[in-house]
Amino acid sequence: MSLEIVQRNLLNILEAVADAVTISSATKRCRLVAVSKTKSAEMIESCFSQGQRHFGENYVQELEEKSAALASKCAEIRWHFIGQVQSNKISKICNSSGIWCVETVESEKHARLFDKEWSKHGASSSPLRVLVQVNTSEEENKGGIKISEAPKLAEFIRKECLNLKFDGFMTIGSFDNR
């Protein structure tokens, strides 16, 4: 897919999002996170040049490589980690340039590790935003904690993790459970 097509499609989506926000009085904030997994740094940079600032990666190695490659060219980029968190990769996520949000926290253990690593790598700027991933469809093949456990984890992050900012819940629903 050419960069021009991607840029044109991105502008159409951003316009549709802006229109939806304008129409809806209930919407207080809306943010498009462009999932950039498997996309080149050049393609991400072209979207950045069109105004897109938030990009999601679900592989730590891609996040590391792309954030390093784009750190100077796209200084205002905001990376979201959207993949399954592995304890041994948390330091690498926190050390990635421009990391802004982790959308897949599903345990106190991982919250503690992110809190500890963020204090070393990024806490001087601002707290790391985290979302608690909730498996609302109760599908065994999807990540996330049970709905009943979500408030407890959110409260743990709010009270115990001073370098993190609980920013909400994340879920991917099932088409079968409408």
UniProtKB/TrEMBL annotation:
Gene3D superfamilies, A to Z: Alanine racemase (3.20.20.10)
InterPro entries in UniProt: Ala_racemase_N, PLP-binding_barrel, PyrdxlP_homeostasis
Keywords: Pyridoxal phosphate
Alphabetized GO MF terms: pyridoxal phosphate binding
Residue ranges of domain Alanine racemase N-terminal in the record: 24-173
Organism: Caenorhabditis briggsae
Pfam families: Ala_racemase_N
Nucleus found in the keyword field: no
The keyword Nucleus is assigned to this record: no
Protein name: Alanine racemase N-terminal domain-containing protein
Entries under NCBIfam families matching the protein: YggS family pyridoxal phosphate-dependent enzyme
Family: Belongs to the pyridoxal phosphate-binding protein YggS/PROSC family.
Alphabetical list of SUPFAM superfamilies matching this protein: PLP-binding barrel (SSF51419)
